[in-house]
């Protein structure tokens, strides 16, 4: 691994401090049109959910399996719209990008045929695939395949990244795109600064958000007139308007008003802060050249053919040498905890987290019982490698005189395509580059 420091101020602020390989970046832009970013979910059986998928059956049962294709739609509102039309619960395995064309498996808790599938929901199409005894559960996927167009690239060949191990950062969209502040709200919640969290959520303007939203937030920040601002905030800022309404009508404390937001939104804020801490700890571990080094107390996971980690093994004196060989040969990967209320190993991982948490002014006990929720933390691979990476360069049909690159690769679940793309493109301003 040949570390190079990022030139992006945004990436530095998100803990994504390094590139993993020595490349000249291609430059370019993502997502000029939605079809430039295609995501196809890979099921636990290894079936790729895509335009050609016609059937998937898991035995007779109470659940209908369907292929959901969405274009330029957030997943949760799309799922809610489908559930409302069908009057049945709908579940899914993983959240997919909004600014993309995505394919994924969903389950409907009702018997349904193709004629029963709702029609006319903007940006959504559904195809019945089969039946199942069980619903699709969160995390019930092997990974995702990405087909991505990078437009207006520089002259020269595209870097070949297929043999590179990359630092497995949480990607840019984890923290928000137009407003990269979900981790900041999470930090304030962890510190029980509920007023600060509300003000950051409602009234902190960002230059990259739409002008109408930015103006409304600036007005609220300058005068904190909720009655005026609830009329000025665009309808699309539904959660912000809902929170303001609770503060106006109920004369609630900031803590109680926050509890009126959906638990999924509140959990997103804390998850984002945990992701930020992980990114910082991973960068620190990489600085010290120990992202692939293991010690007593570390966890190591063997990997399957898809690059997915299996059951973690705790390193001790009896298996240390064997695990070192597995990691060195690329058959296993060092894991690192996403910090939460559960203990961090007293190893290099623990040393990294302790120094960062001291700087942040928090402790692990702060992750217990936040707005009625607790966050224990999980294990995450420190490195990732794109599977079946391929690329080609051609004339850019949308930008005269320029070239574009078409890249295709797969990643295990919970890994971010933008982590691969940033290595290829090296953007100084990820947001203007379409991240």
TrEMBL record:
<dbReference type="GO" id="GO:0003723">
    <property type="term" value="F:RNA binding"/>
</dbReference>
<dbReference type="InterPro" id="IPR011760">
    <property type="entry name" value="PsdUridine_synth_TruD_insert"/>
</dbReference>
<dbReference type="InterPro" id="IPR001656">
    <property type="entry name" value="PsdUridine_synth_TruD"/>
</dbReference>
<comment type="similarity">
    <text>Belongs to the pseudouridine synthase TruD family.</text>
</comment>
<comment type="function">
    <text>Could be responsible for synthesis of pseudouridine from uracil-13 in transfer RNAs.</text>
</comment>
<dbReference type="GO" id="GO:0160150">
    <property type="term" value="F:tRNA pseudouridine(13) synthase activity"/>
</dbReference>
<keyword id="KW-0413">Isomerase</keyword>
<dbReference type="InterPro" id="IPR020119">
    <property type="entry name" value="PsdUridine_synth_TruD_CS"/>
</dbReference>
<dbReference type="InterPro" id="IPR020103">
    <property type="entry name" value="PsdUridine_synth_cat_dom_sf"/>
</dbReference>
<keyword id="KW-0819">tRNA processing</keyword>
<dbReference type="GO" id="GO:0031119">
    <property type="term" value="P:tRNA pseudouridine synthesis"/>
</dbReference>
<dbReference type="Pfam" id="PF01142">
    <property type="entry name" value="TruD"/>
</dbReference>
<feature type="active site" description="Nucleophile">
    <location>
        <position position="97"/>
    </location>
</feature>
<protein>
    <recommendedName>
        <fullName>Probable tRNA pseudouridine synthase D</fullName>
        <ecNumber>5.4.99.27</ecNumber>
    </recommendedName>
</protein>
<dbReference type="InterPro" id="IPR042214">
    <property type="entry name" value="TruD_catalytic"/>
</dbReference>
<feature type="domain" description="TRUD">
    <location>
        <begin position="165"/>
        <end position="385"/>
    </location>
</feature>
């Amino acid at each position: 691994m040949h570390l190079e420091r990022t030139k992006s101020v945004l990436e530095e602020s998100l803990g994504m401090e390094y590139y993993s390989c020595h490349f000249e970046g291609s430059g370019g832009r993502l997502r000029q049109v939605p079809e430039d970013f295609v995501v196809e979910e890979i099921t636990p059986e290894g079936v790729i959910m895509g335009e050609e998928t016609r059937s998937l059956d898991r035995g007779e049962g109470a659940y209908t399996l369907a292929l959901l294709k969405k274009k330029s739609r957030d997943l949760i509102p799309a799922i809610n719209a489908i559930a409302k039309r069908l009057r049945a619960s709908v579940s899914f395995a993983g959240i997919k990008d909004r600014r993309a064309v995505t394919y994924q498996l969903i389950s409907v808790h009702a018997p349904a045929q193709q004629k029963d599938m709702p029609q006319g929901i903007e940006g959504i199409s559904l195809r019945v695939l089969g039946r199942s005894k069980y619903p699709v559960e969160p995390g019930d996927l092997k990974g995702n395949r990405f087909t991505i167009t990078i437009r207006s690239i520089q002259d020269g060949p595209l870097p070949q990244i297929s043999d590179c191990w990359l630092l497995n950062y949480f990607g840019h969209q984890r923290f928000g795109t137009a407003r990269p502040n979900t981790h900041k709200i999470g930090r304030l919640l962890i510190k029980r600064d509920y007023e600060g969290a509300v003000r950051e959520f409602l009234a902190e303007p960002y230059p990259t958000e739409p002008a109408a939203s930015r103006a409304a937030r600036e007005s609220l920040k300058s005068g904190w007139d909720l009655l005026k601002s609830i009329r000025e905030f665009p309808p699309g800022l539904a959660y912000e308007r809902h929170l303001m309404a609770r503060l106006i009508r109920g004369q609630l404390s900031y803590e109680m008003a926050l509890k009126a937001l959906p638990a999924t939104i509140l959990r997103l804020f804390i998850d984002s802060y945990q992701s930020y801490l992980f990114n910082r700890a991973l960068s620190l571990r990489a600085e010290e050249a120990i992202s692939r080094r293991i010690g007593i107390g570390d966890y190591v996971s063997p990997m399957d053919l898809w690059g997915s980690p299996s059951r973690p093994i705790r390193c001790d004196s009896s298996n240390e040498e064997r695990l070192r060989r597995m990691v060195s040969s690329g058959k296993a990967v060092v894991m690192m905890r996403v910090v939460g209320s559960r203990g961090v190993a007293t190893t290099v991982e623990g040393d990294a987290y302790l120094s960062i948490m001291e700087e942040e002014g928090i402790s692990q006990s702060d992750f217990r019982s936040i707005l009625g929720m607790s966050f224990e933390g999980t294990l995450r691979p420190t490195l990732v490698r794109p599977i079946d990476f391929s690329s080609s360069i051609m004339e850019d049909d949308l930008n005269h005189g320029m070239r574009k690159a078409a890249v295709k690769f797969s990643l295990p679940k919970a890994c971010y395509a933008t982590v691969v793309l940033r290595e290829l493109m090296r953007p100084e301003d990820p947001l203007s580059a379409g991240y």
